[in-house]
Structures are given as C-alpha cells and as structure tokens.
Amino acid sequence: MPATGRLLPTQQADGHTQMALDAWLLRRSNGPALRFYRWDGPWLSLGRHQRHWPEHWNDLARRGRISLVRRPSGGRAVLHAGGLTYALIWPDAPRQRQEAYRQACQWLIDGFKDLGLPLHFGSDPAGAEANNCFATATVADLVDPSGIKRVGSAQRWQSGRLLQHGEILLDPPAELWEEVFEEAAPAGAPAQISRLKLDQQLRQSLVQAWSHCQWQMRPLKANEVQDLEGELASWSEL
Question: Average pLDDT of 121-150?
Fold first, then answer.
C-alpha cells in the first residue's frame, strides 16, 4: 500500500513558531511531509551547532533590524527575508548523507527546470562554510547557471528520521544583507520565478517526483495546534 504524504498550507509566522513546528513535525510525522513558509519580518536563523557569530548580529537584533532564532537543523546562518523556506520530513531517507541530499533535492531541480531556471549541485568543500550559509555552495546546495547559490540546505537526523531545511533565495534585501554579512547581496532570482506562486509550483513538483506516495493537503488539527503550543513553550532560546 502506498505511503501517505502530508502537505501543509504555506504559513507566515515568527521564527520561533516556524522552528518549533518543524521540530514537532520531525518528531511526530509517520510519513513524508512538506511545507513551505515565510517569516514575519527579517529573521536570522542560526544552525543547531553554530555557537559563535559576529557580535554585530546581536547589536542588529537589539536595534530591531533582525530577530535571531536557532534552527533544529545544522549549517550556518541564513537571513530569511525576501525568500521562501521549505521543510521536508523524510522518515525513511537513505542513511548516506550525500545520497539523502541528492534525493531530497531532485524535486527542486525538476521544478525549477520546468520553470526555466536550471539548477545544479554546488562543488565547494563541506568544511569551507563561513558564518553566512550563502557564502559557499556544497553538494548539499543548488546553484543557478550564473553561479549564484539559489537554494541552501541543512539537515537534522533524529531517531532515523530526516528533516531537511531549505531556503530559496528570491529577492534578498541588499541593504540589510550588507549590514548582516558585510558583503553585497546575491542577485535576485529571474523575474519570471519571483512573480510565480512558487510554493504551489514546487509542491506539485514533489508530488510528481514522489509519486510512490499518496499526497494529501492536511492543515494542523486542533489537537496538533495544542500540542505544538507545548513544543513552542519549551523551545530553547539562543
């Protein structure tokens, strides 16, 4: 019998709510699940093991320029502003890390190709990451023909389940990007991509690529929302 996959509606919320929901899905999902989301205001998410970051990030947070939150996944800092984030839960992913990334990203490659933007995996060494996730592109990331990292990915394994986080770079705010990372922002995505309802297009790409699953759109139920509130209350601060 085909596995049942869960699609969740696109949601906009603060960073703590978004990260708590992804951690909750990782712990509770019995089958594959996918959701896209956007953030209330500009947020800087730090990787699960990222213990050191520039002091001026704290100053930017104190001045209200950004908000800081820790992700349940690894990797380096990601500025969430003008982009689209996804979380993919995969309970039976391949245990070989590179293969898991390859299979977990193929639907994105297919989806962007259909939209006229071919992407390929990066080639930078995995240990070459800077504080900024988008400063390098490893085999876990997707790069466009201009060499711009268009999708940055990070993973978290828990009890044999995989959470893959991804940030799709669309229209990065140039001034804020330079304030945070002290370098020029990457170019935005082509206009034909940014104008689309990208979440709908890419959601359909996953449904087609993972046709072995029976996908259903299932928003959170009342009891799940209540359970999530408990997760959010215990969500660790920086």
Answer: 84
Task: Determine if the pTM surpasses 0.90.
Answer: yes
Segment 98-118 shows an average pLDDT of: 92
Task: Let me know if 4 is exposed, middle or buried by CB neighbors in 10 A (0-12, 13-18, 19+).
Answer: middle
Q: Would you state the pLDDT for residue 238?
A: 56
Active site residue 213: no
Euclidean distance between CA atoms 106 and 102, whole angstroms: 6
User: Strands 33-39, 83-90: parallel, antiparallel or unpaired by DSSP?
Assistant: antiparallel
- Say what the alpha-carbon torsion angle 44, 46, 51, 53 is, to the nearest 10 degrees: -30
Q: Hey, is 88 helix, strand or coil?
A: strand
* Burial category of 219 from C-beta neighbours within 10 Å (exposed 0-12, middle 13-18, buried 19 and up): exposed
- The H-or-E segment that residue 55 falls in is helix 55-62
The two three-digit tokens of residue 28, written as one number: 């509770």
Residue 236's pLDDT band, with cuts at 50, 70 and 90, is low
Q: Decide if 64 contacts 99 (C-beta within 8 A).
A: no
As given in the structure block, the two tokens for residue 5 are 């996959």
Q: How far apart are the first and last CA of the chain?
A: 43
Name the catalytic one among 133, 162, 169, 228: 133
Task: Determine contact, residues 194/171, Cβ cutoff 8 Å.
Answer: yes
